[in-house]
Amino acid sequence: MEVRVDFHTHIIPEDISHLTEKLQGDRWPILNRTCTCGANIMVAGKVFREVTDQVWDPAKRIHDMERENVDIQVLSPIPVTFSYWAPVEEAEVMVRIQNDFIAETVRQNPERFIGLGTVPLQNTEIAIHEMDRCMNELGLKGIEIGTNVNGKNLDDPYLIEFFEMCDQWKVPIFIHPWETLGRERMPRHNLMYTVGMPSETSLAAASLILGGVIEKFPRLKICFAHGGGSFPYILPRLDKGWRVWPHLRLIEQPPSYYAKNFYFDSLVNDPLNIQYLVDRFGYDRILMGSDYPFLLRESPPGEVIDKTLAITEEQKRAMLGENALRFLNIK
């Protein structure tokens, strides 16, 4: 029987503004209600994103899931709440609020939701402690992290201990773009979302490979949002650079060798791109994900997989749900 799992969805507590009111500074995201079914996410007094009650109301989400033929949503925080910029003791408050909320949402609706937590990566010791709490106390099934930590790429030496524990504890990692490179050049046309995020994701994936993280921890389970951004399409260029600059090599094999370890969600907007991911990485590495409930999401979830003609029904079933459950270590 086909089970449809939307691996890429975001949620935030409706009362986040009240829960974080004691935190210092104005960079903390708050929800400013605009009507009974909508709000603005505000950062530093400016509108960061307009949202609807879908982003906090589990009942609304379940209604949409039934309408769009989704059996299970995987819930993860909105990246603007990662708060790597903040003092770690305050960021820890923020992530614990969200992790507790997601865990409670799953507890109340265990057949419809699976939860991912997040951690304050600006301090690996506290991040590891919170990851332990997420996995072993709250019953969450993985961790969502950003593509950089205050401008440091994910191969920065201080993060090695974090990835080592992810490897030891078999914690699945969902990497989502945030604080994108070049955003000062992208205020027009919402280019941060359409160009900046795919480029940022590509940089994160390339850093993990070229910095030796994947070579050191080949069992890491890592899934990149938005189909890996531009990474799958520049992979041959990364291989070329590895060949022509041997003095820069930190890894034994070309990047494409290690890229086979990665997973990608299916939010690529075109069946041609799904086919490309299948051909390059294999259908077992693609997880259906829609980015619910935001404007750039796929609706209905899984449509681009359904419209990919040159794949079998077995492969479609895997990408629409089975791969996500396997990635999250759920039998």
Automatic annotation (TrEMBL):
Keyword hit for Disulfide bond: no
Q: What pathway is this protein said to act in by its record? A: Secondary metabolite metabolism; quinolate metabolism
Fetch the InterPro entries from UniProt: ACMSD, Amidohydro-rel, Metal_Hydrolase
Q: Per its UniProt entry, which superkingdom is the organism in?
A: Bacteria
Q: Which UniProt keywords apply?
A: Decarboxylase, Lyase, Metal-binding, Zinc
A Pfam match: Amidohydro_2
Tell me where the transmembrane regions lie: none
Domain called Amidohydrolase-related: residue spans: 5-329
Q: What class of enzyme is it?
A: lyase
Molecular function terms, GO-annotated: aminocarboxymuconate-semialdehyde decarboxylase activity; hydrolase activity; metal ion binding
What Enzyme Commission number does this protein have? 4.1.1.45
What GO biological process terms are annotated to this protein in UniProt?
A: secondary metabolic process
List GO terms (cellular component aspect): cytosol
Q: Which family does it belong to?
A: Belongs to the metallo-dependent hydrolases superfamily. ACMSD family.
| Quaternary organization | Monomer.
The protein's matches in PANTHER family, at most eight in alphabetical order, are given as:
2-AMINO-3-CARBOXYLMUCONATE-6-SEMIALDEHYDE DECARBOXYLASE (PTHR21240), 2-AMINO-3-CARBOXYMUCONATE-6-SEMIALDEHYDE DECARBOXYLASE (PTHR21240:SF27)
> What is this protein identified as?
2-amino-3-carboxymuconate-6-semialdehyde decarboxylase
